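Q: A reviewer asked whether we had any structural model of the full assembly, not just the individual parts. We don't, so I'm hoping you can provide one. Inputs are below.
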Amino acid sequence: MRMRRLIGWRMAAGAALLGMGALVAGCGTSAAPTAKAPTQITVGTLYAGSGAFATSSLPEYQGLQFWAQQVNAKGGAFVKAYNKRIKVKIVAYNDQSSATTATTLYTQLITQNKVNLLVADFGSVLTSVAVPIAREHKTVLFDITGTGASFFTPNNKYIVLTSLPTSGVWPESLAGFLLHKGIKRVAILYLTNDFDQSQATTLASRLKAGGVTPVYDHGVPTSTSSYNVLIHAMAQSKPDAVIELGYPNNDIAFLQALASSGQHFNMVFTVFPGQLLSLLQKNVGAKGLAYTYTYPTPPLLAYNKVNYGLSLSQFTKAFQAQTHTGVNFLTIAGYNAGLVIQKTLDTAKSLRQSDLRQAVAGFSGKIFTLDGRFRINSEGAQVGETLPVGQLVPTTKGLQMVVVYPAKVKTGSSVYPAP
Amino acid sequence: MLVYALTAGVLFGLFYSLVGLGLNLVFGVLRMVNLAHGQFVMLGGFAAYLAYVRLGWHPLVTMVVAAALFLGIGYLLYPLFAPRLAASTDPEMISLVFFFGVAEMIQALAVIGFGNNQRSIYAPVFGAAPVRLLGERFPAAWVVSGGVSLLALLAVYLYLYRSRLGYATRAVMASREEALVSGLSVGRISALAFGIGLALAAAGGVLSPFLLGGVNPGVGVGLTMTAFAVVVLGSLGNPLGTVLGGLIYGVSLMLMQSYLSEWTNLLPYLLLLVVLLVRPSGLLGRGVRHA
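A: Here is a predicted structure for the entire assembly that you could use as a starting point for your response.
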């Protein structure tokens, strides 16, 4: 009797356990489909509506907005975690080019707005404050153009650079070109910020490794607007190539000063004509840019192998029709960030930040957009794109970008020394 | 390189003297720091750009027109705000806040009106070939800007020290109360001083694209800071001190750019601190000001 009761209890307990197991298993399988999908996916970002970075930040923001409009016109972005399309909403604040203001606003986006995805403002200065905040809140930062090398470290999993290689990598081709040309006397003038300083460091070290020690290698504050005395100081060192690493306003002031100084160098390199050619041309004139060198980027550089998003010509046509403004690299970079986010939502198994980051790693190297190949390393740094060296050559139709280095992408030969 | 840096410093110093003089004149007469001074300079820069691009005006023509226009605007605006600020319990503090608001408003309107982009004028408008000075070649725009600044400074000097209105202005600067008791029209003189302050800002602004590489709505804040440093360096309320302050600032800036370029940003604040610690009344000040 006692034995029968014991067996009965055991059977009952076993049945209960089986029942609980089935219940738990049932919960596991039925949770995802029954979990309520959000009504919208929020993408939080900042833009500089005024101040030093507005020139670059606004087109980048416009590109991101354009992406959201394109996606929403199709019913939203496909979100794998919910197996349906969900509309995208951009939550954006104006940081007025102030890193201090940006610090508060990034925190607000994460803690108050509780955005699903966080996108950084333009450039290294305004991204630098987002990196530790995103890391602290374990939120993936989609970094469009903040290329400061110090942002990408082995112990920070919460950053993804979407458009450009880290700035330390930018001058690889430039150094190669200078060494290939046998240019021995190189002057480097750079701004003392992460973006420009890391370029200057790489350039100087690559040149030194190639047996060339720069004859002038000095930094100036980012706010520098007067360049004549600096040009004069550089000229004293008799350089054949002058490399100025700045932001758009610095490049304009530098090229203006060079035009009025009466100095002539065999080679002059600046960064932003390759990204904001129309702005530079409006301020410096075609003559001031003639035969200067830069890093060409889309739309001056066309990537024909596109397997995700619009091609360059489709984007240009649609963007101009919708916004009635011209396309430059930064609008493309903003749109490209949207594409990376779209693919992330398309492949992530949930909206948890760790799953989002894992999803990015999963498609890294597999998508080719109008901005080139998207591929990141384990630290989140973009390694799919390279920046070649281009020269702006005057033609009867205006300035033409000729890619002069490296050999595998070159479209013509450089005119050196510059006339 | 030293001769180049020193000469460039003098040319730049004259420009900064012009920019600082307007701020100092307004402070001297009104006892108010116009924190929107840099924004008025910025408006002068945009005036030069727009007049050149849209109307084809030479910057020197724009300078005369802009200075006259800003003189009139300042003269007419003065009665709308100054008596109210003066009647407050703490006019100096209230005026700081007031002009801060004006500065922000002008900048916001400039962004709406002109956009955020840098605007610059094709530099050879003053001559394509560089000008030789002391054996060195300088951009023609710098030499012209330096010369025009010098003439403008001279004009202000003649106004202050050789005209009846100038004597009256200096009397108000010395003691507003005594000037009132003496029967001087303090309100009218102050309005004129405010107008001249804005006119000088506009004149400096027209030259700014050539010396600062261009103009954008955000340049005002930095220009106000630099102008303030120049004024304090010379002496608050002393117009001649501003000329000296501007020259010292310009020369120091160029020497720093030539030999210690990484540290250039530190300069205005370093000079300001040194002067405040060593000689609080400024280089040409007679004593500590009790406002």
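A: Points you may want to mention in the reply: The two ends of chain B are 44 Å apart (CA to CA). The interface with chain A takes residues 1, 4-5, 8, 12, 107-108, 111, 116-120, 122-124, 129-130, 136-142, 211-214, 216-219, 222, 253-254, 257-258, 261-262, 264-265 of chain B (CB under 8 Å).
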